[in-house]
Design brief:
Length: about 700
């Protein structure tokens, strides 16, 4: 019997399970897409249309500098400027197009365009020709990543010929000069394209076409201006240009301090030392950009404020007067005296010995210009702290006081000044034999032997004519440590960078110890010399010299100087560990130097009404200046110096005069005394004139007030 019925299709359980899993996954996917579109759709749309706020700091003019009497020394002069702000997404083609348009409106100086700039520009305009400069083998190496993009590009650059570069036209050079400035800037940071010699016409026509020049703006820039001209130039310092921007060695510091890479900053001396004060508070602009980096709109956050002003301790009338004195003396002695072939510089520092305020820091360098063959006078005020010399007998005040302090010398002690004969060495002596003298006469007449025997006693030596001499080498440290308490051989602490210490001799023989005691071994700076004499003048306080007197807010709308932010108080670095009567004794010796008929400076100062005190110096030295390469051996020369203060009984001004390499013969001119006398005369003349003017103005004001009351 035959079975009947249909076969049942049978779907395996595992296949059903697979279909079920696929169904679940699709359901989850649909649910997820729904959530993305419905729940998070607006969020993702906002992300796509996201904008970003970028705050840009725009520089402001630097603070001004005034002298102690309110006269402007360093100012800002406004400049028309054309700038370019590169948007984050700007490409080379876009920048080139803008540069081409701008080149039709302004004229650029193309001297700064380098050969590398030209080669880059040529490649941009000759892509096919540039490609042919790469061989197939080099292309293959590049594709195999065996050479880098940079290496390939450098090969192209090296193969561009001068003939090809010469095809760049003058019009293209104008475009290149502009493009060069465009590309050197940073995204969303204004870059100066031109700020020198921007004519009114250029400024106007660019302003009228700003809509066609994306990223270009017209604005007002600034440059440093010096109303007094060259005086103090080397001390005031320099500011970087917009091209230099931040110094590479301080880049991280400035960037961390909210500077932009192309900001101008002080790069030397006062401008550098007081950068934090002078640079001001930048104007802030918030640029709103889209995701592509395009600026949608800008919003001013703050106007900013130019830098604070510095009031210097310098008296510019006195400064200019002293500079003229140095110039006249250099010319006179250089051209009218013999043996002055090496004379080329001189320095004067004048300081208030009671406060440390520098009233004058003058230095001049007078030498032939190699190109013209004519003599030229250059500012070298910087040399007062950056160069050092053997100063000679000017340091004898410190030697005598060291003798008192160590107990080897007592005030009034008498010593025989006669030539000293030490076995195996040349005789040593004073400029003339003086016989038995005391400490005052030793200072007044500048006895070397008195200082020699004091130094030998400090070194526990025993001088016997004609025999060898041994001293304890610790005496070198004893003398130098004592000298440093006056400021000799150590930094003075002046508010300027790069101050020099001077140089210490490296030998330790007895003859060298004797030389050290008369200022003919170690070297000191003119600034150290004025700190030293000020320490004696004020009774034993070593004051820190400073050039900034006050920091003030910028000038107000009425043209008046702003309120004082900070006033620099006198700073005592140390007090001499010496009895007041010892210092009084040396002060009397210094008075006799200039006011006793037998004093070494009496010829220049005995008739001075302001009654100065001081000490002269003459040092036998070897020339170590810029011409030293001309000589097989450095020639011997004389440095002449003067330290002084006035009036002797109530010091208000201290002075150091240094004339290195003054002459080569044993006797020459007295330029140190001539400069010192004229500088003092200038100071006291100005003081008198100002006092009379103030009295007349006061009297006139009293008359006007009385007249008003009568009415």
């Amino acid at each position: 019997m035959k079975k009947s019925g249909k076969k049942k299709t049978h779907v395996p359980f595992r296949l059903n399970m697979l279909f079920f899993i696929v169904f679940i996954l699709f359901s989850v996917l649909i649910l997820r897409l729904g959530m993305v579109q419905i729940v998070y759709g607006d969020d993702y749309k906002r992300e796509i249309e996201r904008t970003e706020d970028v705050t840009v700091n725009n520089p402001v003019p630097r603070g001004k500098m005034y002298d102690r009497n309110g006269k402007v020394i360093v100012d800002n002069t406004p400049l028309n400027a054309i700038t370019y702000t590169r948007q984050a997404g700007a490409d080379t083609e876009e920048m080139l197009k803008t540069a081409e348009k701008l080149a039709k409106l302004i004229h650029m100086d193309t001297k700064k365009v380098t050969e590398r700039d030209k080669k880059d520009f040529w490649i941009m305009h000759h892509e096919e020709a540039a490609k042919k400069k790469i061989t197939k083998a080099e292309t293959k190496l590049y594709e195999e990543k065996k050479i880098t993009d940079k290496e390939l590009y450098n090969k192209q650059l090296s193969r561009i010929t001068q003939k090809e570069l010469n095809t760049i036209t003058e019009d293209q050079m104008q475009v290149l000069a502009i493009y060069r400035e465009f590309s050197s800037g940073y995204a969303l940071t204004p870059q100066v394209v031109k700020n020198k010699d921007v004519s009114d016409k250029e400024f106007a026509v660019v302003s009228e076409n700003l809509e066609k020049l994306p990223g270009v703006e017209t604005t007002t820039d600034w440059d440093r201006k010096y109303p007094f001209g060259s005086p103090l130039q080397t001390i005031l310092g320099k500011v970087t240009s917009s091209e230099e921007g931040l110094p590479s060695e301080q880049l991280d510091y400035f960037l961390a301090s909210d500077y932009s890479r192309n900001d101008r900053v002080g790069k030397s001396y006062i401008e550098q030392e007081y950068e934090d004060v002078l640079h001001g508070q930048k104007a802030k602009v918030k640029n709103v950009t889209d995701k592509a980096g395009n600026v949608i709109h800008s919003q001013k956050v703050s106007d900013g404020q130019r830098g604070k002003d510095l009031v210097l301790t310098i008296d510019m009338e006195l400064q200019t007067a002293v500079e003229k004195i140095i110039e006249q003396e250099l010319k006179d002695k250089k051209h009218n005296y013999s043996d002055t072939q090496l004379l080329e510089r001189a320095f004067v520092v004048m300081m208030d010995p009671n406060t440390g305020e520098i009233l004058t820091m003058a230095g001049k360098d007078y030498k032939k210009d190699e190109k013209t063959g004519k003599y030229k006078m250059n500012d070298f005020a910087l040399g007062n702290l950056s160069t050092s010399y053997a100063m000679g007998s000017a340091v004898k005040g410190a030697t005598v006081l060291t003798g008192y302090k160590t107990g080897v010398l007592t005030p009034g002690q008498r010593i025989l000044d006669a030539r000293m004969k030490i076995k195996g060495t040349k005789d040593k002596g004073s400029w003339q034999t003086m016989g038995v003298i005391d400490d005052l006469t030793a200072l007044k007449r500048s006895s070397n032997v008195y200082m020699f025997k004091t130094a030998i006693a400090i070194g526990k030596g025993n001088y016997v004519p004609g025999q060898s001499l041994d001293v304890d080498t610790a005496a070198f440290s004893t003398l130098r440590d004592s000298y440093s308490q006056f400021g000799l051989g150590v930094r003075t602490g002046i508010d300027l960078p790069n101050e020099q210490n001077g140089f210490k001799g490296t030998g330790d023989g007895p003859g060298l110890l004797m030389d050290l005691s008369i200022g003919q071994y170690d070297t000191y700076t003119p600034l150290q010399l004025v700190q030293y004499v000020s320490t004696i003048a004020n009774g034993g306080s070593r004051l820190q010299p400073h050039l900034v007197k006050e920091i003030r807010e910028p000038i107000d709308d009425n043209g008046k100087m702003g309120p004082v932010v900070e006033e620099m108080a006198p700073t005592v670095l140390n007090r001499l560990d010496m009895k007041p009567e010892w210092i009084d004794r040396v002060q009397e010796g210094f008075r006799q130097v200039m006011q006793d008929p037998r004093g070494t400076a009496a010829s220049g100062f005995i008739d001075a009404e302001y009654k100065p005190a001081g000490k002269t110096g003459t040092a036998e030295a070897f020339y170590d200046g810029p011409k030293r390469s001309q000589f097989k051996e450095p020639p011997q020369t004389m440095n002449i110096t003067l330290v002084s203060y006035a009036p002797y009984n109530n010091p208000e001004i201290a002075m150091a005069v240094v004339v290195p390499w003054a002459y080569q013969s044993s006797e020459g001119h007295h330029m140190n005394l001539d400069i010192g006398r004229k500088a003092y005369d200038a100071y006291f003349k100005l003081k008198k004139e100002r006092s009379e003017k103030e009295s007349n103005e006061s009297a006139s004001e009293d008359v006007n007030n009385q007249s008003g009351q009568n009415e």
